[in-house]
Amino acid sequence: MSRRAFRYSPGRSLVTGASSGIGAEFARALAARGSDLVLVARREDRLSALAEELESAYDVRCRTVPWDLSESASGRRLREIVPERIDLVVNNAGFAVQGPFADGDADDFERLVAVDIRAVVDICSAFLPDMIARGEGTIVNVASTTAFQPVPTLAVYAAAKAFVLSFSQSLWFESEQHGVRVLALNPGPTHTEFFDVIGDSATATGTYQTPADVVATAMMALDSKRSRPHVVSGRRNSLQAAMVGIVPARVLLPALARMLH
């Protein structure tokens, strides 16, 4: 007998960073399961094109919300725009700044923290209480395999994803007793626009997957009877994430720095 208790099919899902990559693939996978969608990203033209694609292909309703998550109080303001019931929130939006920290731009670091940390916290704060009140709902926070170790030249990004992983695990424990699931999804290097921005040199850990691979990992976890606080996408990525915890930092960090140079 299969261990899967059900095929996860939320009634309405909100996906941030939905205009491309993992976010767009989440939208396609959820639409294929019959979920209506609220698509959030900065690029309105791409959101509109994706919404038309999904409504035509899967007969679902899609709402687009062009939004810059670096703005303050993003979650609270999104909740005002989207007051209806949301069964699944996918916090996928994020970006990285690569290079020696001392050479970086403070404004870029501020925006990274705003999108990768503050917006995740704010959106969870805005949508989680309603889920707990009704005793059901799901939040998926997209972290990264960089969450499992410091990464020279990606110092702020790796630290931000470590925050997302830790934060999500705490919420998993707090929420599970109320019937709500919180999952941290940890992709490794993935074929998306992310690496068009920061370059391929930031692939020292893990092997490339497709957005479909990453989303399939998340959906398999959500289909499972077992509630898990986090999942790593890809067998090799999982092994590497487990191994870095036993390698001393004085050995790990110079090795990572050489690979990322």
From TrEMBL:
<dbReference type="GO" id="GO:0016491">
    <property type="term" value="F:oxidoreductase activity"/>
</dbReference>
<dbReference type="InterPro" id="IPR057326">
    <property type="entry name" value="KR_dom"/>
</dbReference>
<dbReference type="InterPro" id="IPR002347">
    <property type="entry name" value="SDR_fam"/>
</dbReference>
<keyword id="KW-0560">Oxidoreductase</keyword>
<comment type="similarity">
    <text>Belongs to the short-chain dehydrogenases/reductases (SDR) family.</text>
</comment>
<dbReference type="Pfam" id="PF00106">
    <property type="entry name" value="adh_short"/>
</dbReference>
<dbReference type="InterPro" id="IPR036291">
    <property type="entry name" value="NAD(P)-bd_dom_sf"/>
</dbReference>
<feature type="domain" description="Ketoreductase">
    <location>
        <begin position="11"/>
        <end position="192"/>
    </location>
</feature>
<protein>
    <submittedName>
        <fullName>SDR family oxidoreductase</fullName>
        <ecNumber>1.-.-.-</ecNumber>
    </submittedName>
</protein>
